[in-house]
Each structure stands twice: as C-alpha cells, then as structure tokens.
Amino acid sequence: MILTREKKEIWSSFEKMSFRFLFLYFSLYVLSIFTSSLWEPVINWIGTFVFNIDYDFSSNGRGSGDTTYAYLMLFLFLCFSILGNIIWSFLDRKRKSYNQLQYGLLVGLRFILIFFMFTYGIVKIFHLQMPALSNSDLISTFGNKSPMGLAWDFMGFSKTYSVFAGLAEVTAGILLISRRTQTYGAIATIVVMLNVFMMNLCFDIPVKIFSFHLMLMGILILMADFKRFFGVVVLNKNINNYTIYPQQNKEDRKIILISKTVLFLVTTVFFILTSYPRYKKRYLNSKSPLYGIWQVTKFQKNRQNTFTESSLKERWNYITIDQNKYATIKTLDDKLLPYKFTVDTVNNNIFFGKFREKKLDTLTYQKNDSMLFIKGVFKNDTLNIQLKFKSPEDFLLKSRGFHWVNEYPLNR
C-alpha cells in the first residue's frame, strides 16, 4: 500500500517513492492556499515562456479558483514534486520507512479537511453560502441565469436542504477529529465532496480544483486504512489486528483528547460567531420600508408615455427591494440593474443612483396600501412612476409549499 496506518519497519521502494511524491505535492498545495500571490513571479514566467499565454492573468480570481493562474500553479507543483521526489530519493535512499512523517501528513490533511468542512458546513447551516431567493431572483428570467446562478437558486430555495448539506459536511469534519473514526470521516468527506465536485463540474462553478483536492485528501486518509476497509466491506473477511502508528500511552491520549476538545469548541464558536452577524443582517434585521416587489403600471419619462422598440431598455418593468440601501430595476428587455436605494421615511424621499456614484439623486415617493408613486429628476430626466405591490406568493415557486401527498406531479 502507498499509505497505511500500520507500523511497518521496512517500506518497499515503490511505497517510499509514492509517499515522497504525495507528501511534496499536497504540502505545496496546502501551502499555496494561504500563499497564492507569493508564487506570482514564477507563475507569470511559466505562463509567458513555457505555455506562450498572451493574455493577462493573476492570482486574484475575484472568487474563482479555476483561473489560468491556478492551473499553472498545479503544473508547477507537479514538476516540483517529481523533481523533488528524484532528489529526495537519492539523498535519502538508505531510509527504511517514513512512519512518523506519514503520520504527520495524515494529521495535517485531517486538520485541513476539518477546517474546510466546518467552514462550508456552518455557512450552509446558517443558509448563507447559497442564501434564500431574493425578490430580484423571483423576477429574473430563467433563461438568463448562468449555470452557477441556477445552482445557487436551487440550493437557496430550500433552507432545509441547505441545513442538511451543511450538517453532512460538519459531520464529516467531526468524524475526522478522532483517530477511531477518521476512516468514517474520510468516507463521509469523499461522498460529500464528490457531490460538490460534480455540482461544480455540471454547473460551471469555479471551485472545481479546490473541491477535487479536498476529495483527494479524503481518499488519501481512506487509503491509509484501505486494507481493513476493503477486507471488511468488500471481501467480508475478518481482518487481524495490527499495530497503528504511533502507539500512545494513557497520558498522551489524555492530552490529545483535551487538546482536540478545546480546539473543536474554539473552532465551532469561531465559525458561529462569524456567521451569525451575517445571518442576522440578511434574515433578522429590519427590512426597508419599501421592501418587496413593485411592478410598474405607469412609467412617464420627460412627460412621455410611449417608447420606441430601441428604447425599451429605458422603460422600467419592476423594482425589487431586498436589503436596505439596495434595489434592483428590471427593464422591459429583461435586464437587471443594481442601484443604491436609500429611503427617508420622514421626508418621503428616495436617494437613488448607481453603485460607483457618490452623489445620489433625490426622488419623492408616496405609498398608499399596495400602490407606490415615485416622482423626481433622475439623470436629468423627469420621472413619474406608478407601481403596484406584487406579493411573492403570486409566484408558484413561493406559493407551492410542501405536500406529503401528491395525486399528480406538478412539474412546470
């Protein structure tokens, strides 16, 4: 076996070379998670002179982990691991085994997996990674959604499913904490991350490299106990006990247990404390006085009610207000335009403008039951707009609800 939890005094040449490669590659990859930008001079040189890339690329993917820079970094790590393996094998050719270093690698991989299983799991439990559908999501056109946006809406629609997915990731992390349950944790991690990786592949979510490597880490941890796993699960055989490296005395186990407990509690509290303010802001804080979906029933610009076909983009169809200080306008040509939108309820004013503008235009409004009237000058144009409140329950997606009994499928 390439990796094993069993203490072996003498490793074969294949086992030693395989371990050296895996140790180098995953050490470099984990290091790059926190030091990605430091590799930029080398990566830029490789991209320009080795692969003849003639477009700009950098370590800043603005949320994407599948950039040109990321793939070039994997190529660099692969080369370093192969070259380092050759040099290491020559310099350390007399060593019989790497039991201690292998143990350190497995502990390190478990720590990384635990951290990210908790990171992504808890934000899903708080329904933050793929948040609940917004008002602007309800009026957006299905065909104009990106595959990633579709996946986000799919996950965001059901808080229960988001919590379930988060609990699965957190459970995998918890099982990885103890040596007794690390194999179960590895299996859970592989299952969870395989689903995430396939979702990233099928919905063009740019975290494919990262999710694939988390799954690989789970596979490595499972490989360390593969002899027993394969014998029991596949062959249905009784596997003899073997000595697990390292053997710990009672005092060592006590110290490790206390350390793990403290680290688990600190980590859990940290993630909850950092997630709750975001949860409160999105779901618990008071909403804008004009919160909701407003459908335009009358739109007059510079006292004109009619529009040519080429000017449809200027005619508003909906205004959706989800959070304080933000609104989205949907035009008749199905474009969604984000704006700053602050409401002054004392003077019945709306401060309105694009995101990058510091000075906002001031409009006046009147709200009467389910009707909203907005007047004023915006971008040197006089606007007179009449809007009607549209309830989210008017959308089948929000009103359908859950049914234990379905005589017929409602598939629209």
Written account of the structure:
With 412 residues, the protein is α+β, with helices and mostly antiparallel strands. The protein has two domains: 13-283, no CATH class; 292-394, Lipocalin. It contains twelve helices and eight strands. It has helices spanning 13-35, 40-50, 68-91, 99-125, 135-139, 147-157, 159-175, 182-202, 208-223, 226-234, 250-284, 396-399; strands at 292-301, 316-321, 325-331, 336-344, 349-353, 361-368, 371-378, 381-390. Strands 1-2-3-4-5-6-7-8 form an eight-stranded antiparallel barrel. A hairpin with a 7-residue loop joins strand 5 (349-353) and strand 6. The longest helix has 35 residues, at 250-284. The relative contact order is 0.09. The chain crosses the membrane at residues 21-39, 69-91, 103-123, 160-177, 184-203, 209-235, 255-276. It comes from Polaribacter aquimarinus.
Question: Which tags fit this structure?
Answer:
412 residues; alpha+beta; Lipocalin; 2 domains; 8-stranded antiparallel barrel; elongated
Question: Helices and strands in order, then pairings?
Answer:
Layout: H1 13-35, H2 40-50, H3 68-91, H4 99-125, H5 135-139, H6 147-157, H7 159-175, H8 182-202, H9 208-223, H10 226-234, H11 250-284, E1 292-301, E2 316-321, E3 325-331, E4 336-344, E5 349-353, E6 361-368, E7 371-378, E8 381-390, H12 396-399
Antiparallel strand pairs: 1-2, 1-8, 2-3, 3-4, 4-5, 5-6, 6-7, 7-8
Helix pairs in contact: 1-3, 1-4, 2-3, 4-7, 4-9, 4-11, 7-8, 8-9
